């Protein structure tokens, strides 16, 4: 048995999950009464495949911009270092079905984009490191598996 770790995802047995999926990774109840929920939006099977870094960067920019057209509850959307998915942090109690609908709607927006938002040297720290097609391919693959998103374990 491995020691319990402080980081929730380090306690997840990555050999037993079946990507793609969306799951609640953490819930924080703040002192003023607000609740933050962190969702694991997993694109790729851990230790089997991963997203290309240009695709990761472009999904991050595109999702972060587009999701805010549909929700004022978004705190952050950021990539996992392992390049297999993203963390979506939202204000509110956990609600995977509602978040899955929000993610789906945002992915459909990404498919309609003509350019990656803010993919330039003025608005981005590495403006040349983007791939709109890579982002579209990644979200298209996720959308093909939409019915499976709420099933985390294999």
Description:
By secondary structure, this protein is an alpha+beta fold. It has one domain: 2-Layer Sandwich (Gyrase A, domain 2). Helices cover 29% and strands 19% of the residues. It is built from three helices and four strands. Strands 1-2-4-3 form a four-stranded antiparallel beta sheet, covered by helices on one side. Strand 1 (21-29) and strand 2 (35-42) form a beta hairpin. Helix 1 packs across helix 3 and helix 2 (96-111) packs across helix 3 (132-144). The model has no long low-confidence stretch (mean pLDDT 96). Pfam families: LuxS (PF02664). This is S-ribosylhomocysteine lyase. Fe cation binds at residues 57, 61, 124.
Main sheet overview? 4 strands, antiparallel
CATH H-level superfamily? S-ribosylhomocysteinase (LuxS)
Main β-sheet, spatial strand arrangement: 1-2-4-3
Helix-strand string: EEHEEHH
> If classified by CATH, what would the architecture be?
2-Layer Sandwich
> What percent of the residues sit in helical stretches (DSSP H or I)?
25-40%
| Residue share in β-strands | 15-25%
Query: And the CATH topology?
Result: Gyrase A, domain 2
Count of helix runs? 3
Number of domains: 1
What ranges have pLDDT less than 50 throughout 5 or more consecutive residues?
none
Distance between the termini: 21 Å
How many β-strand stretches? 4
Question: Nearest-angstrom radius of gyration?
Answer: 15 Å
GO biological process, one term: quorum sensing
Catalytic activity: S-(5-deoxy-D-ribos-5-yl)-L-homocysteine = (S)-4,5-dihydroxypentane-2,3-dione + L-homocysteine
Subunit structure: Homodimer.
Binding site for Fe cation: 57, 61, 124
């Amino acid at each position: 048995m491995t020691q319990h770790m402080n980081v929730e995802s380090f306690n997840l047995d990555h050999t037993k999950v079946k990507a793609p999926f969306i799951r609640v990774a953490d819930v924080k109840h703040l002192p003023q009464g607000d609740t933050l929920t962190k969702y694991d939006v997993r694109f790729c099977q851990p230790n089997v495949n991963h997203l290309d870094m240009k695709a990761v960067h472009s999904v991050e920019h595109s999702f972060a911009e587009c999701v805010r057209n549909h929700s004022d509850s978004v705190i952050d959307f950021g990539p996992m270092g392992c390049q297999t998915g993203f963390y979506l942090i939202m204000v509110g109690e956990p609600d995977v079905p509602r978040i899955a609908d929000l993610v789906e709607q945002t992915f459909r927006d990404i498919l309609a984009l003509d350019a990656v938002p803010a993919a330039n040297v003025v608005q981005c720290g590495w403006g040349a490191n983007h791939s709109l097609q890579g982002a579209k391919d990644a979200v298209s693959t996720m959308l093909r598996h939409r019915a499976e998103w709420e099933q985390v374990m294999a």
